Amino acid sequence: MTTAPDRPLWVPCGGTALEWGLRNPCPVAISTHTHTRGRWWTVWCLTCGDPYTGYPAEIGERHHHEDDAQHAARLHADDHEGEIRRFLASARHAEIREKSGWTTRLFTLVAAASGEDPDAVVWWDGSGYRFIPAGARYGAKGRRMRRKVVELAIAAGFLQERADGDLVATADGRAMLAVWRHHRADLAEPWAVRHEPQALPPLPGGQEAARRREAARQRAVELERQAAQSRAEFLRRREEAEQRNQAELEAARQRRADEQAERERAERARTGADIDLTWSAVDAGRWSVTGTGNDRCLDVVLNTTDFASDMYEIRENGHFVSRHPYRHQTEAAVRQLLADGVEIGQRTPGPTPAASIEAGPSEPAVRGHQAPPPPPFVTPVYGPRSVEQRGEPGFPPTHPATCALAGRRVAELAVRQKRKRLTGRSCTRQDEPTGCATTQNQSHREHRGASTVHRDHLQHARG
Fold first, then answer.
1. DSSP class of residue 103?
2. Nearest CA to 337 among 351, 352, 317, 364?
3. Residue 167 and residue 160 in contact, taking contact as beta carbons nearer than 8 Å
4. Which runs of consecutive H residues, i.e. helices, occur in 272-326?
5. Is the pLDDT of residue 213 over 90?
6. Dihedral (C-alpha) 108, 114, 119, 125: value to the nearest 10 degrees?
7. In sequence order, what DSSP letters do the residues of 211-225 get, joined into one string?
8. Whether the Cβ atoms of residue 419 and residue 427 lie closer than 8 Å to each other
9. pLDDT per position as a tens digit, 390-408
10. Residue 34 has pLDDT above 60, yes or no
11. Phi and psi dihedrals of 378, rounded to 5?
């Protein structure tokens, strides 16, 4: 079984490396030596040792107490860690100076507001800030500072404006002065008028940066709260819309179902589908059919002689109604008759009485008598037409005389159209004999004479 070694291999005599949780691995360790004269502890440093052989260097004297060795090792490790911290701080300050965007005038303004330079003063004259540099004459008002520069310093958290108008440097401003104190030669020139930046970056890790981070966090929390509220409101409205839509769909579905049920009920009432029929046999091939809720009685006779197949004939009060080849069609027809509610003929217990003598041939029979049957329909037959009957109305379109008249009119129309194409002018039917040679070069008198001759020829041709 292998265990993690608690002693680094580079420590002589099996020493123990220090573990103080420093930012970088600690190169310092302590080893214990035992001798006949006693016991002592030695401090070793790998960084200070030989870089070629990798052997550590012994730091200081040997210690007879372990606490002294621990204290000496801690001081030596802090020296190495201090070098690393100083290097990192120098690199961090260089990065801050590079990104700060400070100018010489801004440095003198913050330095005067911090009180580090007692001879420089920044004061409020009621209309703006004035800066009196060190070495100015007594009673000088100083030069006016641009309001834009002061606003940039206040917004970045380097200056703070009091109620009386005085400016005071903040902790970030004093820290920025410490960063620039030994590098004032690297400061940029003052900004030109109306060429100031929109904003200055705050000090990294400063109070203004922390305040902005907290404000950003609070804004993020507020935005998340608003987003959660908006989501909840959206879900609520969507749920209400879905419920409303479902209610509308259900209402429409119920309405369609009711309409369909009403249509089916009306159809069943119209066709009599709910009527139960009772077939009572009268004799062979004849039945008396009645329906529930109806006092009418219809006779159904099976006709097996007059047709190629058996037919069910429906009669009411001795009158023929309809004929069907199958029984289910007969039942449907009987239900339809009973549902219509119109009784055919008159119920008579005995034979049909004769019609009244006073009733003429065109008058209906009196009440209680049957009307005579209508005369049979006879299809009219048209014979050949004579010459005198040609052109008379009243004949069907397919009659030979009508076809001849239509052909003659088509021929006359063709002659008219041909004359119009040749002469470029339209003329009447009297001016359209076959072979008319009138042209546009003829005068009106010549054309009138030719038209008269052609009209005579046309009348002679028509007979």
1. B
2. 317
3. yes
4. none
5. yes
6. 80
7. HHHHHHHHHHHHHHH
8. yes
9. 444 444 555 555 566 677 7
10. yes
11. -115, 125
Q: What whole-number percentage of the chain has pLDDT above 90?
A: 22
239: DSSP letter = H
CB 274 within 8 A of CB 331: no
Q: What are the pLDDT digits (tens) for 153-188?
A: 889 999 988 887 778 889 999 998 888 888 878 888
Burial profile 209-247: b = 16 or more Cβ within 10 angstroms, e = fewer: beeeeeeeeeeeeeeeeeeeeeeeeeeeeeeeeeeeeee
Q: Which two tokens stand for residue 1?
A: 């079984």
Q: What is the pTM of this model?
A: 0.44
In terms of average pLDDT, the best of 201-205, 235-239, 373-377 is 235-239
User: What span, in angstroms and rounded, lies between the C-alpha atoms of 378 and 140?
Assistant: 138
Give yes or no for a contact between 284 and 296, defined as CB atoms under 8 angstroms apart.
no
DSSP track, 54-96: -PPEEEEEEESSHHHHHHHHHHHHHHHHHHHHHHHHHHHHHHH
Taking residues 303-307, report their average pLDDT. 88
Say which residue the tokens 């239509």 belong to: 406
**Which DSSP string do the residues of 115-131 spell out, in sequence order?**
TSSTT-EEEE-SSSEEE
